[in-house]
Structures are given as C-alpha cells and as structure tokens.
Amino acid sequence: MDSFLSKSAVYKTHNCAQLLHVPAGTPSPSPSNRRITCLKMSCSSVFPTLRTVTISYSELKDTSADLSMKIEQGFGPNGLGILSVTDVPGYSSLRENLLHLAPRLASLPEEVKKDLEDSHSRYNFGWSHGKEKLESGKPDMLKGSFYANPVLDVPTTETYLIERYPSYCGSNIWPDTALPELEVAFKGLGKLILDVGLMVAFHCDHYVSKGMKVHVDEGLEQILLRSQCHKGRLLYYFPPQKSNHMQDGDSMSSWCGWHTDHGSLTGLTCGMFTRDGTVIPCPDSAAGLYIRTRNDQIVKVVFGEDEIAYQIGETTEILSRGFLCATPHCVRAPNGEEASGVERSTFALFMQPDWDEKLNFPKEVHMHRELIPSNGVLTFGEYSEKLLDNYYHLKA
Ligand SMILES: O=C(O)CCC(=O)C(=O)O
Ligand SMILES: [Fe+2]
C-alpha cells in the first residue's frame, strides 16, 4: 500500500514544472516497472495547464469495460483527483439553460433573495451570499450560491432529523415567482450529473476492489445510490473588484479559496464566463480552476464545455483507504483591465452518503482527525455538521 501511494515524479523544463503521470490500472505494489508518460499540457501562465483524463459516455455505460487505468490516472494517488466524461446525451443544453440563470438569480432584488435564505440550515438550502468565511476569516462576498437537493424537495418530515442534520434534512426553497424556470433547470442538470456520477462510482469500485476488500454494500456506488442527501450548488462569481483582489489570501484563490470537497464525489460543469449576462470568452487564460497535486505542485485544470468533470471528496479518500484521492482546488478570478465586469457561473453536484450512513473511519486518518471519536464511527450527517462548524458560525 505504501508504494502504491508513492508520489508522482515532477521535473522542470523551460521554467515549467512538468507533471509526469504514472499509469497503471491495477494497484501495484511495485512502482519501478511502471511506464512513465507525460500528460499533454501547455504553459500559458506561470502554472502549467493540464487537461483532465477523459472517459466517453459509451465507455462508462459499459459495465464490462475495465476502466481501472483511467480511474487510476484521474483519481489514484498519482492523479489530479479529477476526470471528465465526454458525449453525455442531453448534457450541453441542460448546462447552458441552468448556468444562464445564475446571473439572473444574483441580480434579483435583495429582498427577493432574502426570502430565499435559510439560516436554520446554515444557508445550505436556497440563496447564500456572504455567509461563508474565507481563509482570512472574513465573509466571502465574491460568490453567491443557490443550494438545493435535485432529487427530493422534502427529504424527510421528521422534526428530530431536521433539527439534527439541518443542512441535509431541510426542504428546498425555489423562487417560484421571481425565477420559475430555475427549479426545472436545476433538477434536470442535477439528476443527469447524478446518473452519470453513479456510473463513474461503479468503475471506481471496480478499481478499488483490485486493491482492497470492498463489501458489496459499502462501495461508492451503493453508498450514493441509497443516499437521499445529494446537494446541488449553482454558483455565481461576482465580477472581481480591484479593491478586494489581493487582500483575501493570494491571487490564486481570488474567487474561491483552497479547499477539498468533503463528500464522496463532486460533479462539476465547466464555468461559463459572461459580462452583463452575455457569454464571452474569458479574457484572462489564467482564470479558472486550479488544483494542488499530491506533491504540492499547483496546476490549472481544463476540460471541455461539453464534459462533466468529477472530483473525489474527502469521505471517499477516507473510505477507500487512499486508493481514490481527494484533491485541493480553488478558483482564480481574471486579472487586468479586460477583466472588468467578468462574471463566472457554474454548477457543482455534491454526491454524498446519506445522513445516517455509518462511516467506519480507518485507524489512521490524516484529515480532520480531531472530529473522529475513539471508536472510529460517525454518521455522515454528524461528520458534516462538525465540519460546517469550521466554515460557518457555530450553532447557538
Ligand atoms: O467554481 C468551480 O469551478 C468550483 C466550485 C467548487 O469547488 C465548489 O463549489 O466546491
Ligand atoms: Fe469544491
């Protein structure tokens, strides 16, 4: 296991760190006989730009296909923690329809957005702006989010569950009058990303089961299939203001701070850049999604508009004992004169275990160790509420 988790090799050429990827496909105890190839990339900014590993929808649908190699290249210990799925039928129009609604939602009158807020769930349903803390501890004013469960409007009516796990067991809040199109567009895209995500999960289980014993009920696919608390997030990044550009952390994470998603698997659309709601090419090629690799290299990651990207969350890294690795990421805002007025909209689907799913944490956990009780057992809902305490104000 140790050598399987060995780091990828990095060397420098022309001032540009080249990430060498070590493909395998079978968790191998011996890295020495692996073939080494270099991923396609360009060096348009100080940081190299890497293309995601891709899997086509038809490959993914084939349950007899062995995609272990691609799963390892994307999600394994030497991967970036991201891969993308191409040619998903119906995806492009669902993405465009929903992303166009983000600037419209953000520009609704303040009193209308206030009615879409839900403090009880710590703003994990409906509209959320300026409620999360940045790395600096200041409120995050740079992005607005709209959260909803794309599958269930009312996951439960049990009061004790809603009290215990407010961020998952609450109900959706839709802007029925102000933006009635949002509900259909959000649910349509969210459900499609979930369906494709379940296929990705099937192949992840296949890959992990080559390296460790995975109980039938405890694989990623089954955990996600029985979950009632997947959460979609429509994100709108406000145009960067020169004044708050550098003050909150470094310019790298100027739109969204460094973090790892805490759930199981996150589906992500390619961001759409607009100015006053009209789609534009991004004027700064350095703007967008960045990832920190396993050996602390920072790379810009790109994938096509018509592809759905998937990232591994912390819970999967823990439960798969590191065979699938979560990845720290952030979003960089555009810089320069031409960046004025540039907005970015995107959608993330956080696929995660059910609130009462018991997580058996391994003895040695390298993240959030302080949250895990001595018997190593916590429900996913308990684990998440503890994590939320770090990002929002503590519950009264
Ligand atoms: O905006 C993006 O591309 C990423 C958003 C993200 O990382 C998140 O919502 O967790
Ligand atoms: Fe994220």
UniProtKB/TrEMBL annotation:
Residue stretches making up the Fe2OG dioxygenase domain: 229-353
InterPro entries linked to this entry: IPNS-like_sf, Oxoglu/Fe-dep_dioxygenase_dom
TM annotation in the entry: none
GO molecular function, one term: oxidoreductase activity
Keyword Protein biosynthesis: no
Keywords: Iron, Metal-binding, Oxidoreductase
PROSITE patterns: FE2OG_OXY (PS51471)
PANTHER family: NON-HAEM DIOXYGENASE N-TERMINAL DOMAIN-CONTAINING PROTEIN
Family stated for the protein in its record: Belongs to the iron/ascorbate-dependent oxidoreductase family.
Identification of the protein by name: Fe2OG dioxygenase domain-containing protein
Naturally occurring in which organism (per UniProt): Dipteronia dyeriana
